[in-house]
């Protein structure tokens, strides 16, 4: 599991004028792709071995972004200039490193001279660092989940050649296979829950309320975690398709409300409709009464529990 980097210790160092004199020249070196500012779009990074610490340094795009590049320094040496919507992925030897991204950096070149921010980077870890737009050069450490939401659509920054001697090419390990989500379904008869064509909370029968209470007890007994539950309403094919979609959703929303009233977390439960698109049986003929009776298995509300990792 990737851990969030939470503490950066500020170590103000003495001015190194010689480094500042060469900063501009270093930044003007051509990048990794001639004539291009941005390279490939972001995709989730693979882990690295204990011999490296991996850093994904990025800058968000959108409103409120300052103009110009944010100069990224690693151990007082220029690495890249991040524009809005740009990112850079690199590795270093684990240990104490100074890191920062500075807007309006010239002529003081704080990332090379003063206001350096140090952190102890652990081997085998990946750190997601975001540029702060308020002028503070300190990296803003964020979780992988938050970073990858913000990195959607971002592209690698390639216009400048890294001059940071401690930066290494990452030797990534194979990505772990993504485990497909696994679910367990609990089907409640629509005819037990509701009168024909009904969907409101006031329409739930006594037997329906009892069935939902018993289901809540069963869910707690069978699952240590109930973090993701989808309630899906299903109808029979009698009537218009759009009407069946709406009826299925209303029934799912009603059952969701009763599950919440029974103590399950509202944030964990969603409601949706399959309408008549997923029938259990589809060979019902005869009179309308015969079709209604035959289609009883199709009228159901399914409570789908995510059991991945349990």
TrEMBL record:
<dbReference type="Pfam" id="PF00691">
    <property type="entry name" value="OmpA"/>
</dbReference>
<feature type="signal peptide">
    <location>
        <begin position="1"/>
        <end position="25"/>
    </location>
</feature>
<dbReference type="InterPro" id="IPR050330">
    <property type="entry name" value="Bact_OuterMem_StrucFunc"/>
</dbReference>
<keyword id="KW-0732">Signal</keyword>
<dbReference type="InterPro" id="IPR036737">
    <property type="entry name" value="OmpA-like_sf"/>
</dbReference>
<dbReference type="InterPro" id="IPR006665">
    <property type="entry name" value="OmpA-like"/>
</dbReference>
<feature type="domain" description="OmpA-like">
    <location>
        <begin position="181"/>
        <end position="309"/>
    </location>
</feature>
<protein>
    <submittedName>
        <fullName>Outer membrane protein A</fullName>
    </submittedName>
</protein>
<dbReference type="InterPro" id="IPR006664">
    <property type="entry name" value="OMP_bac"/>
</dbReference>
<keyword id="KW-0998">Cell outer membrane</keyword>
<dbReference type="GO" id="GO:0009279">
    <property type="term" value="C:cell outer membrane"/>
</dbReference>
<keyword id="KW-0472">Membrane</keyword>
């Amino acid at each position: 599991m990737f851990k969030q980097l939470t503490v950066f210790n500020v170590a103000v160092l003495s001015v190194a004028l010689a480094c500042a004199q060469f900063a501009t020249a270093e930044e003007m070196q051509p990048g990794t792709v001639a004539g291009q500012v941005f390279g490939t779009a972001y995709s989730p990074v693979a882990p690295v071995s204990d011999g490296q610490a991996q850093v994904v340094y990025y800058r968000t795009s959108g409103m409120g972004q300052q103009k110009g590049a944010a100069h990224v320094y690693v151990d007082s040496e220029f690495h890249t200039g991040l524009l809005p919507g740009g990112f850079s992925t690199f590795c270093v030897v684990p240990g104490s490193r100074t890191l920062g991204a500075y807007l309006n950096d010239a002529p003081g070149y704080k990332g090379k001279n003063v206001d350096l921010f140090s952190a102890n980077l652990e081997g085998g870890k990946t750190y997601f660092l975001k540029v702060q737009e308020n002028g503070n050069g300190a990296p803003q450490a964020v979780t992988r989940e938050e970073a990858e939401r913000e990195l959607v659509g971002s592209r690698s920054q390639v216009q400048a050649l890294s001059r940071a001697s401690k930066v290494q090419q990452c030797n990534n390990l194979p990505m772990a296979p993504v485990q497909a989500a696994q679910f367990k379904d609990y089907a409640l008869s629509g005819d037990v829950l509701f009168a024909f064509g009904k969907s409101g909370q006031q329409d739930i029968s006594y037997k329906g309320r009892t069935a939902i209470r018993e289901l809540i007890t069963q869910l707690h007994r069978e699952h240590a975690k109930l973090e993701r539950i989808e309630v899906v309403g299903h109808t029979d094919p009698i009537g218009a398709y759009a009407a069946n979609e709406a009826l299925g959703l209303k029934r799912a929303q009603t059952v969701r409300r009763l599950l919440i009233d029974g103590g399950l977390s509202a944030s964990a439960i969603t409601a949706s409709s399959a309408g008549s698109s997923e029938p259990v049986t589809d060979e019902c003929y005869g009179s309308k009464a015969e079709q209604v009776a035959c289609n009883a298995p199709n009228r159901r509300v399914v409570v789908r529990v995510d059991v991945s990792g349990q």
